Amino acid sequence: MNHWMTVVDVRYKQLATAFSTLESLVLVLFRVWVALAFWRAGIVKFSDPAGTSYLFNNEYHVPLLSGTAAAFLGTWIELIAPWFLLLGLGGRLTAAFLFIYNIIAVVSYPELWPHGFWAGLIGSDFSDHKVWAMLLLAVIAWGSGTLSIDRLIARIWSNAVSGRVLDPMKSVH
Known about the structure:
Number of strands: 0
Largest sheet: none
Distance between the termini: 39 Å
Order of helices and strands: HHHHHHHH
Number of helices: 8
Shape: flat
Low-confidence stretches: none
């Protein structure tokens, strides 16, 4: 029996190690998914300024901002911030910013929660926004991963501080 327990333990550790190599790919996919969603929303807003202005002045209820200011900021945030997230530049900070932006978007548009905010939070209302929030939380918690500008900058910085020259042929860890 002890032999089988050892075999299971070894196999489990091998499997866990193999799965841990997926971390960077998963974080890239999370970043791509959310970045595309926000960027597409920004393209729609940019392509129809009159419609965007109408929505922000009549439908959306963004706290503390006029409809015109919210439309302008919302459009440009959705056109610029996704690129930072996609590239993994300031990944945690960008993800946190978009997480808060996402909450403001949900709160500002009551049509997203026809059953009430709290019922919608637990139920099926604003599902896309909840998925984006979870993906952003993963980036906030674990960073952008090895496939990011953040990681490249950290590696260059670490090498500069230690006096080593960066060898572009070595893998980034």
